[in-house]
Automatic annotation (TrEMBL):
<keyword id="KW-0472">Membrane</keyword>
<dbReference type="GO" id="GO:0016020">
    <property type="term" value="C:membrane"/>
</dbReference>
<dbReference type="InterPro" id="IPR003594">
    <property type="entry name" value="HATPase_dom"/>
</dbReference>
<feature type="domain" description="Histidine kinase">
    <location>
        <begin position="306"/>
        <end position="461"/>
    </location>
</feature>
<dbReference type="Pfam" id="PF07730">
    <property type="entry name" value="HisKA_3"/>
</dbReference>
<dbReference type="Pfam" id="PF02518">
    <property type="entry name" value="HATPase_c"/>
</dbReference>
<dbReference type="InterPro" id="IPR050482">
    <property type="entry name" value="Sensor_HK_TwoCompSys"/>
</dbReference>
<dbReference type="GO" id="GO:0000155">
    <property type="term" value="F:phosphorelay sensor kinase activity"/>
</dbReference>
<keyword id="KW-1133">Transmembrane helix</keyword>
<keyword id="KW-0808">Transferase</keyword>
<protein>
    <recommendedName>
        <fullName>histidine kinase</fullName>
        <ecNumber>2.7.13.3</ecNumber>
    </recommendedName>
</protein>
<keyword id="KW-0902">Two-component regulatory system</keyword>
<dbReference type="InterPro" id="IPR011712">
    <property type="entry name" value="Sig_transdc_His_kin_sub3_dim/P"/>
</dbReference>
<feature type="transmembrane region" description="Helical">
    <location>
        <begin position="17"/>
        <end position="37"/>
    </location>
</feature>
<keyword id="KW-0547">Nucleotide-binding</keyword>
<keyword id="KW-0418">Kinase</keyword>
<feature type="transmembrane region" description="Helical">
    <location>
        <begin position="195"/>
        <end position="213"/>
    </location>
</feature>
């Protein structure tokens, strides 16, 4: 069965129609041909029987009227019938005659041994008693027809009702057997003609339908080829888009990494350069200015300004500074972000790491994870200081997933997609950072249900 299914699947639509439609049309042709041939045969037989019955009635009916009052024919009537069917043209065609009375009694028969005997009435005999002419071609299987069946040539068996002239009542039924050599030839011609017409009709119909299906199959095959070509073209474009996206993500990751390293270098230089010089200037300021009252006041003002500038430079340096993430694994990166958070608050943060060491996680992805955890903890401290915070980390072969959740008051996710009043980008900036390297951030929160932020990153180097 699987082999047949495979062979069938490989066939074209016209071949499938030719096979399946051919079987159906052949079966339909045999049925219709048999039915039409049968109807034609019945019509030809009935027409022949009616003609013969009308002709024979002119001989038999006058001689059978005495059966109205008697159960059998007189000797004169029998002799007359025997003379009609012996040595005459009628006798050459009608080889046997029986005249039936009610109840299946034979009142007269060419075979005198049957006279006076009773047989079970056949269906054709019963129809004749109802006033209808009945006929059967080559159906000599009744008990009383054994002699005729042995003659060896085709016979038309006709049952013709014999009626009383004045009342029209059926008084007897004449059964006669006519040689059917001409009828047999006519039936053969009729069957051949009917089968030829039916076969030709089905053949023409099948050819027309096959032509239509073949044209439709050619159209479908052409459209399939066009669709296949378009699909292949689309797949090529999709592969090119994937490669282009990978190149863009890789380029964006390298650019982000270079920018972060440059900012880290800038923060280091601010801390080690200008901050140190300002600190030195503040310490030596007292020895430069005069020891007068006015000099002391100016010294304090200048020193206060220098200390303020030093504080701002150090704060700016800390904001630009990022820990060296190249040699840290994912759990150490998350721990470093929590450590920075713990310097400013005692908010409880729990961590669940469910990922093994990831070899393919590059600097850009590590930095994105660090900034994501850092920003989420800052938001928790700002909007839900009393909430419990949980950080989970999971991974599979292709993706790293970091989630930060709290049981605080929650917020409208749409509000996170706008710039802050101080110009900061907040979560929107993190989303842009994640998307630039092929990742995504999902925000799940509503009022009074807490908030969960999920970062998903592809595991790739860069």
């Amino acid at each position: 069965m699987p082999l047949f299914d495979a062979l069938w699947a490989r066939q074209t639509l016209p071949r499938k129609f030719l096979f399946a439609g051919g079987i159906v049309m052949l079966a339909a042709m045999l049925f219709v041909g048999s039915w039409v041939s049968k109807r034609i045969e019945e019509a030809v037989v009935q027409k022949s029987a009616s003609t013969v019955a009308l002709y024979m009635d002119s001989f038999i009916s006058p001689l059978s009227q005495e059966l109205v009052d008697s159960g059998e024919l007189s000797e004169i009537a029998r002799r007359s019938l025997s003379e009609i069917f012996s040595g005459t043209a009628v006798g050459d065609r009608v080889v046997s005659v029986k005249i039936w009375k009610k109840g299946g009694l034979i009142a007269y028969a060419s075979d005198e041994a049957l006279i006076g005997r009773s047989f079970t009435p056949s269906e054709d005999l019963l129809n004749a008693w109802d006033g209808r002419i009945s006929a059967a071609y080559e159906e000599l299987d009744d008990e009383e027809s054994q002699r005729e069946a042995l003659l060896g040539f085709p016979l038309l068996e006709v049952y013709s009702p014999i009626t009383e002239p004045w009342t029209g009542d059926v008084i007897a039924v004449a059964e006669f057997y006519e040689r059917a050599d001409d009828l047999e030839k006519a039936l053969i011609r009729a069957r051949s003609s009917s089968w030829m017409v039916v076969g030709l009709s089905f053949l023409v119909s099948g050819l027309l339908l096959y032509g239509i299906v073949k044209a439709g199959g050619s159209t479908i095959r052409r459209q399939q080829e066009q669709l296949k070509a378009q699909l292949e073209k689309s797949q090529n474009m999709a592969r090119q888009n994937v490669l282009l996206k990978q190149r863009v993500v890789a380029a964006s990751g390298r650019a982000n990494a270079q920018a972060e390293r440059a900012l880290r270098q800038l923060g280091s230089e601010l801390h080690d350069g200008p901050a140190q010089y300002i600190s030195l200037a503040a310490m030596r300021l007292d020895s430069v200015l005069p020891k007068s009252r006015k000099g002391t006041k100016d010294a304090k003002d200048i020193k206060r300004a220098l200390n303020t500038a030093l504080t701002e430079i150090r704060a700016l340096s800390r904001g630009l500074a990022v820990p060296d993430l190249d040699n840290l694994d994912i759990s150490s990166i998350i721990a470093r972000a929590i450590e920075d958070h713990d310097r400013h608050t005692e908010q409880e943060v729990s961590v669940r790491i469910e990922t093994p060491p990831i070899a393919g996680l590059g600097y850009t992805s590590k930095l994105c994870v660090f900034r994501f955890v850092q920003e989420c903890l800052t938001n928790c401290l700002k909007h839900a200081p009393n909430a419990n915070v949980e950080i989970t980390c999971q991974s599979d072969t292709d993706h790293l997933v970091v989630a930060v959740s709290d049981n605080g008051p929650g917020f409208d996710p749409a509000s996170a997609l706008t710039l802050r009043e101080d110009g900061g980008q907040g979560l929107m900036g993190l989303m842009d950072r994640a998307e630039s390297i092929g990742g995504a951030i999902d925000i799940r929160s509503s009022a009074d249900t807490g908030a969960t932020l999920i970062l998903t990153l592809p595991i790739q180097e860069g």
